[in-house]
Amino acid sequence: AMRLAALLAVLRPALPLLLGLSLGCSLSLLRAAWGRVEGQGGCPGAGREGFPGGGARLAAEREAPGPEREEFRPRIVPYTRDPSKPHRKVLRTRYIQTELGFHERLFVAVLTSKATLNTLAVAVNKTVAHHFPRLLYFTGLRSVKVPHGMVLVAHGDERPIWLMYETMHYMHQHFGSDYDWFYIMQDDTYAQAEQVKALVTHLSINQDVYLGRAEEFIGGDEQARYCHGGFGYLLSRSLLLKLHQHLDSCRNEILSVRPDEWLGRCIIDFLGITCISQLQGQHYHTYELAPNAKLEKEDEEEFQAAVAVHPVSDVTLMYRLHKHFSRIQLDRAYQEIQELQMQIRNLTSLTPAGEAGLTWPVGINAPFLPKSRFEVIGWDYFTEQHLFSCPDGSSKCELSGVSKADVSDIIESALEQLNSRYQPLLRFSKRQLLNGYRRFDPTRGMEYTLDLLLEAATQKGHTHVLVKRVSLVRPLSKVEIIPMPYVTEATRVQLVLPLTVQDLDFVANFLDMFAMNALDTHDNALLTLLFIYHPYDAQRVSQVDVFAGVKTMVGELEKRYAEVKIPWISVKTEVPSQVKLMDIVSKKHPVDTLFFLASVWTEINMEFLNRCRMNTISNWQVFFPVHFQEFNPALVYRGEQAASSSTDFLRDGHFDRHSFAEACFYNSDYMTARTKLAADILDQDEVLESMEVFDVFLHYSGLHLFRAVEPGLVQKYALRSCNPRLSEELYHRCMLSNLEGLASRSHLAMALFEQEQANST
């Protein structure tokens, strides 16, 4: 017994391992036995190799797509290179969706005429056109004046059949490979855009679809149907591709008065497809308006659910229909919001946080919670007349423009919400806004807190004045991507560097950085120097040239890089106005030149040059980067070694928002804005001396001004020389840049403390 106990004590640590091995071996043997039994049994339909081979073939047959589904299977296109031919760079498409073969969802064609182009067509454009991703108008007129904001295709023949033929041919030629669905409607049709878009999102694109209001042919086959053109109809891309090759035959062989009947007969005769009103559980509801119909009485379910309404006899009726259906969609949206909020309230009690985790408003993100005092979002105080946090930095300014409209709208919304909650017992009217606070929370939207002096009236006519505080949120709505023109990183950048006598100590570092980061890397960038001579130095240039050292350095660079030429332009002036200098440079370069206006403290690098190319768009946007200015090392480190960690390169400094010395813009955009400026001020020199290039684009161009911090532009500390001959605003801005660039508040406080300690001892 003692020996057995000792043996068990020795084997006890190994028992789990032994049991696991035994269980694993047993399961392996059982599985092998089952496999042999199944393999020997066979089954009906098995191949010669037995059940596994036959089953694999059957599975492959089930998974193999038919010819109609082959287009929608992803395919890997092998890349084969002919060794006998020289290698060429592969050109990529502009957009990834083009390379992957993605299609846009819906294209809309509106058929119009001479009589309705400036009436009903304009009404369609103002009501539903902006809800569709792409909408074009087609007419048979010639040399017609196109109304503003409309894209019109004129075929030059007003015959209805010819217009339909040319429209189908045009859609196939220009958009047949870009869109999945094509919706054709007349300008006397009101179509619910959201309903049409929802319809195509629920339909499969791998079928030939001819969907609309099915109508019988007069004296024709009882089974054949065409889609009534007045109520619009939907064609799939596959049907349009098949139909295109038969359009010429249809034009020559089919006679019809109505274009919708002609198209329906063409599709039926050559493709064997008839018009249908429902597909895959989706119904195409329509409603025919009676003459002199009153929308207030049209409360039928068929009218409320209609995708298209026809005929719309005049512009006023079109706008009334749009208002009516917009109200229906808005009520549905509010009803869905209330249902979702109720579901959120019911489910919140089941979460770990319980009802305490319920945010207000229900369904909106919770307010941002700062982790430190530096992340606290401040509130802006306002009244009905003034704003106490102004864009220009002043403490008080008049409330105007969109800010005034925003405040008025939020007060009206507050009163509306109060009255909807307390009516009919109480009715509130505003006497005065006592206090108003607002802030923008990036996680949820604009928040408001209002202290309102209200007058409450009861049902019996008694009134009482009271103060009530209300909180409101204007949540962030659907985020939309702003369409921007296409740009590339291959554009040549023309650097322009203005130099004065005070800048001579920093030119060598600028040229070294330009050579290392642009010339050595073969970046597509050129440099032009602008020597600004004082009149006194200009008179002595033949004896003593103050820029002789810079010219020598330029000559050495041109010798080192034989293919590089660095031109310079000499200017004589006492007041180096940025606009005047840019006028000189602009005239010496082509209109499509991309300028980068730099300063002598700028350290050129490829990262920023690429951002300059991407953020500057001709006839659309100019870019004014905010460089990072390092603090004075004597105040920051006070004799200690500066931190060399790569993670601290943006720590001991600040982004200098007072400097507008760096700018990226196209010469054509500058010339356009400069022409408007010249017409406004008649080239008054004192006005030009008070302006910078930023002011020219801000006040005299309709372009987007992109002003953003740029971590790729890091400048060493240097005390800038501020020219007192410039305007008071520019001089004051230069002084502020110098003062704020000394050090942070903590560094300045420490320097003062050490100075007081030294004085006290």
TrEMBL record:
<dbReference type="InterPro" id="IPR051227">
    <property type="entry name" value="CS_glycosyltransferase"/>
</dbReference>
<keyword id="KW-1133">Transmembrane helix</keyword>
<protein>
    <recommendedName>
        <fullName>Hexosyltransferase</fullName>
        <ecNumber>2.4.1.-</ecNumber>
    </recommendedName>
</protein>
<keyword id="KW-0472">Membrane</keyword>
<keyword id="KW-0333">Golgi apparatus</keyword>
<dbReference type="GO" id="GO:0032580">
    <property type="term" value="C:Golgi cisterna membrane"/>
</dbReference>
<feature type="compositionally biased region" description="Basic and acidic residues">
    <location>
        <begin position="59"/>
        <end position="69"/>
    </location>
</feature>
<keyword id="KW-0325">Glycoprotein</keyword>
<comment type="similarity">
    <text>Belongs to the chondroitin N-acetylgalactosaminyltransferase family.</text>
</comment>
<feature type="compositionally biased region" description="Gly residues">
    <location>
        <begin position="45"/>
        <end position="56"/>
    </location>
</feature>
<feature type="region of interest" description="Disordered">
    <location>
        <begin position="45"/>
        <end position="69"/>
    </location>
</feature>
<keyword id="KW-0808">Transferase</keyword>
<dbReference type="GO" id="GO:0050510">
    <property type="term" value="F:N-acetylgalactosaminyl-proteoglycan 3-beta-glucuronosyltransferase activity"/>
</dbReference>
<dbReference type="Pfam" id="PF05679">
    <property type="entry name" value="CHGN"/>
</dbReference>
<feature type="signal peptide">
    <location>
        <begin position="1"/>
        <end position="20"/>
    </location>
</feature>
<keyword id="KW-0812">Transmembrane</keyword>
<keyword id="KW-0735">Signal-anchor</keyword>
<dbReference type="InterPro" id="IPR008428">
    <property type="entry name" value="Chond_GalNAc"/>
</dbReference>
<dbReference type="GO" id="GO:0047238">
    <property type="term" value="F:glucuronosyl-N-acetylgalactosaminyl-proteoglycan 4-beta-N-acetylgalactosaminyltransferase activity"/>
</dbReference>
<keyword id="KW-0732">Signal</keyword>
